[in-house]
Amino acid sequence: MATTKIAHHREMAEIYEGEAVCMQKSRLLLDEILLPRGLLPLDNIVEMGYNRTSGFVWLKQKHKKEHRFHTIGRTVSYDTEVTAFVEEYRMRRVTGVKTKELFLWVTISEIFVDDPASSKISFANSTGIARSFPLSAFCIQDEQQQHNNTTTVHKRLHRHRPNTVVDIRNDLPNKTKVHLAARKDSNARQAQRDDFRSTTAIQNQIKEKQQKQYEQKEEICSEVTENKRPEPYFDAGKESQYT
What we know:
243 residues; alpha+beta; at5g01610, DUF538 DOMAIN; 10-stranded antiparallel β-sheet; elongated; DUF538
């Protein structure tokens, strides 16, 4: 199947032969799509092709290769023909790459970096299940050493960074110090006035609320008193005498 794909995309492709040239071009390709150079550690590459129009890439090596990524403790198998459709941060429809999970070989169908800031690279199988690992695990040895050295230097610089915080108030002239002290006192007095005003306003609101409650109670009491006032007495017998 891989051979059929290669034949289909071969016409418009850039084709290279020879181990040294193919190794160089494969690393340049990984740089171009922003993936780590150590992602395809193939040996004895006899041919590499890249069709820029379709994004199809293939690499042929003389023999299968199993490579152990010691940093993450994973073994990956590369077939004699490895193909993929590439774009930035992604290799799709990958063939010829398998990873060993426990005692089973799982075919990798996609390799991608979702968030470059996270420094994680993910490998997905045909069912969509993906696992993520640090990008640094797939750098070549020289790049990994350089990355470690850079990290160590940054840590040392951060650890030995002097304390540069200086109180500049000690270097100010006396007039400026007096002015700053007066401003500080003025701000404190203003804060006190604001607190007093806010307290007074709250007290006034409480008084108004209490007054309203008192007036409502008075209205209720007056209504109750009017409702309980006795009705005038009416005697039917006396009324008949007058009539």
